[in-house]
Amino acid sequence: KMMKYAKMANEPNLEASANINLATQYVYLKLFDKAKICFERGLFLYKKTNNTAMVGVALANIGNSELKQGQYIKAIEYFRKSLAITVKTDNLYTKSRIVSTCNMLSVAYLYANKLDSSLVYQKKCIELGEKIQNHQNIYDMYNGFAEYYFKKGDNKNSIFYAEKALIYAQKLLSIEKQSSLYSLLYQNYKQTN
């Protein structure tokens, strides 16, 4: 319905947003071919209207789609493009997006087994996230470090960061995040004993 309204109203930014939102839903349904079509259409419309901030958001969403498909190198490319665009804008929303994109880059590098690059982006996340004091971003950063150190076999640091992440998961009232962290802590303790 939103798509029809946007086309009737001749609002390219609204139509672009509708395409990106629809694409995101297709990703959750694992209908990646349909998602790709909508992502490309939304990205085209944002570029056409020179909406730079939303081009960055769209590229990050495409990166998330690639990440969910296990296409880590492609995801990294999209996240890097998103970051390059997003850092050129300056407001609280884009600062939060920068932290989020750095975190996703860290995750993509971690899954691609490029641990040093993952660590670089996690450190950027910590630095930026603490400046803007966003609980979700801070949780993501500490959780990313916990996973990074677990993958490296450094249980002591993984436990340290998982416990920090747990504080923010509790502040966010997220049972799912808390459960995931307790599982990671259990795995760490199991390996140390």
What structural category characterises the helix and strand content? Answer: mainly alpha
Major sheet, described briefly?
Answer: none
Helix content: over 70%
Q: Mean pLDDT score, rounded? A: 87
Beta content: under 5%
Spans of 5+ residues with little confidence (pLDDT < 50)?
none
Describe the global form.
elongated
Number of strands: 0
Say what oligomer this is: single chain
Radius of gyration: 18 Å
Order of helices and strands: HHHHHHHHHH
Count of alpha and pi helical runs: 10
N/C terminus separation: 56 Å
Concise overview:
This protein is mainly alpha-helical and 193 residues long. 85% of the residues lie in helices and 0% in strands.
Task: Supply the key terms.
elongated; 193 residues; mainly alpha; 10 helices
Overall description:
By secondary structure, the protein is mainly α. Helix content is 85%, strand content 0%. The chain has 10 helices and no strands. α2 (12-28) packs antiparallel against α3, α3 (32-48) runs antiparallel to α4 and α8 runs antiparallel to α9. The longest helix has 20 residues, at 92-111. The termini are far apart.
Summarize the helices and strands and which ones pair or pack.
Layout: H1 2-8, H2 12-28, H3 32-48, H4 52-68, H5 72-86, H6 92-111, H7 115-132, H8 135-152, H9 155-171, H10 175-192
Helix pairs in contact: 1-2, 2-3, 3-4, 4-5, 4-6, 5-6, 6-7, 6-8, 7-8, 8-9, 9-10
